């Protein structure tokens, strides 16, 4: 460790000595910088935080969202209303004098930049650059291009990707980064950066560009990938890029940004072992690797567990593999820390929903984007059976926003509200409005069991269950994404439904999931919680020692450093 030496000062303070640029459409750096919508942004934020802690020579490049992802309110029937989230970047970010220009259609659009510095545990700085076209030099219409994340249809979306990819590379040059020669494309949104690299270094430089790019795909279904009609791309992008595109895509229309990223990256990975396998099949590309996601341990561990870990597992927040030591923490200390976190959750529930829940009752949580495939309402499939199993024994806390244009997702929220109505007086169920980083932290640390039941194989990884594992909260989940690698039945948590062995994962009987869910809740989870507290606490320790020790972004970033970036962390 060279914390106080001159060499460290030089490395940490000379920001120009950065080698890797991490491009991402969204990044959750703070709850009050609402320039993200969900899991992808949270992962990006956790990645950048771990890079700063470990001393990885990285900068982040992202798009400033003038309006945050919406504020959610729900009426008594669960109808969602979205209101714009205004925020003032001046209060959180530093505007720099640097600017660059890009061409959209035939217009010159000026791009300015804001900086945010992530300061790691040992003072190492990872700067993050927010690109913004809301400047007086641009037309009213252009100033709104980065008004809302992914907002406003295909045209705006493509323009946002031009700002991020092409504008981002030009901005890095203007900011004076001379040593950056590795570019990490976090999802296909960033792929246009590769076209700009080709333009910079001259036609026929594909192979050289490819040596410099790393691509992480996050979407396990074909429909999830960004696709644009060739005519739209031709309308928006300068002709020079169109020539490259014709070449790279060999005339393929529509233009699939994932295809561009795949063709122009030296290293490509999915975000869990299963997702790697699904991606190799989907893209017919055997070279796709997998690096399983994680979460930033210090960010997602509740205060009471942070205190406990500081006492019993020194060094856990710089090297979370130390979590194996969790087995030596006394039972009563684990339980006390958990009760503190649970108390905080119940206060949040009381403040937000006006309902006082029972600290001693088994509490199950579910919070995610309200997308249909996540099946948040699955547990309410048979209310009579649920009352029989869980009446007076279990309480539930839900949260999650539906994308404004996702009618099916909105219906899932209404279904839960209908169930809440029917369960009144029998099972307490609350829905916390406006799921965000803050409530996400309180929920994942404060419940006893974290429920997850997506349709397989739709959950590429999932990260909220990793947050719960850091807090000794037991996962009860369909075997998809990260949980396939993390679940040891009855040891770290429990699986729902069959092993994921079918050749076509989406083609299986969903009733198997719901039956297994009810069956295990009744025969295993409820009796264990009330009748064998010491085994329950042993499982809490297991999930910290086995799951948190691995499913964290320190391990993940080190894996990227080793396999994809070829750099060593300064601190480890
Ligand atoms: C962690 C987190 C997510 C991602 O959770 P998944 O389990 O991957 O769906 C989404 N939104 C918020 C606010 C989070 O904190």
Q: How would you describe the overall organization of this protein?
A:
With 572 residues, this protein is of the alpha/beta class. The chain folds into two domains: 2-294 and 556-565, Glycogen Phosphorylase B (Rossmann fold, 3-Layer(aba) Sandwich); 305-551, Glycogen Phosphorylase B (Rossmann fold, 3-Layer(aba) Sandwich). The protein contains 21 helices and 19 strands. It has helices at 6-13, 39-54, 140-143, 153-175, 192-201, 206-212, 230-236, 239-249, 257-263, 273-282, 297-300, 303-312, 331-353, 383-390, 407-422, 437-446, 464-469, 483-486, 511-531, 533-548, 553-565; strands spanning 20-24, 58-63, 67-74, 80-86, 94-104, 107-119, 125-132, 182-186, 213-216, 227-228, 255-256, 267-270, 289-290, 362-367, 394-399, 429-432, 449-452, 474-478, 493-496. A nine-stranded mixed sheet has the order 5-6-7-2-1-8-9-12-13, with helices on both faces. A six-stranded parallel sheet has the order 16-15-14-17-18-19, with helices on both faces. A hairpin with a 2-residue loop joins strand 5 (94-104) and strand 6 (107-119). It is globular, with a radius of gyration of 24 Å. The chain starts with 5 loop residues before the first helix and ends in a 7-residue tail after the last helix. 51% of the residues are buried. The model has no long low-confidence stretch (mean pLDDT 94). Bound molecules: pyridoxal-5'-phosphate (PLP). Residues 38-39, 42, 368, 435-437, 440, 462-464, 467 line the site of pyridoxal-5'-phosphate.
